[in-house]
Amino acid sequence: MTGPGPVAGAEAVLACYVMHDIVADDRTAQNVLGTLRDALAPGGFLAVADAVSYAPQPEERRFSGLFTYLHSAFMSIHLPSEQEWLDKFATAGFARTRTVPIGLPGGRLFVASR
Questions:
Q1: Of 8, 47, 76, 86, which one's alpha carbon is 20 to 30 angstroms from that of 54?
Q2: How far is 4 from 15, CA to CA, in rounded Å?
Q3: What mean pLDDT comes out for the span 69-96?
Q4: Of 109, 107, 106, which Cα lies nearest the Cα of 58?
Q5: Is the pLDDT of residue 2 over 70?
């Protein structure tokens, strides 16, 4: 991402199940997440709904394990763990990130505040 473009000054940016491809590479993650953070209006937030690898809760473990394996074995995509997601947002300079389960096994909503 080379500039904020259409998200400049946004109060909120929502990305659903697309960021796992972007955050797989640390340099790209830092660039894209940092640009989005800088583009947000004061008090703005980035909401990312995406998957975590091998979710630890028993009721979501089976589906999450299969979803993680599918991405790894067939698409060469590393799905971050919940902690890895949080670390990516922190490294990109977000002040605070909340995690909310979204009812889909292994799915999380990350709300990262500027």
A1: 47
A2: 15
A3: 94
A4: 106
A5: no
Please name the residues in contact with 78: beta carbons below 8 A apart, sequence gap of 6 or more.
24, 53, 71, 72
Amino acid at 43: G
Under the phi-then-psi rule, with left for phi > 0, alpha for psi from -120 to 50, and beta for the rest, what region is 108?
beta
Using the structure block, give the residue that is written with the tokens 């389960």: 101
Q: Quick one: which of 33, 25, 14, 1 has its CA closest to 102?
A: 14
pLDDT one-digit tens code per residue, 98-111:
999 898 899 999 99
Task: Please report, to the nearest 10 degrees, the dihedral formed by the alpha carbons of residues 15, 18, 24, 30 taken in order.
Answer: -30
Q: How confident is the model at residue 4 (pLDDT cuts 50, 70, 90)?
A: confident
Residue 49 in 3-state DSSP?
A: strand
Average pLDDT over residues 16-32: 92
Position 18, amino acid: V
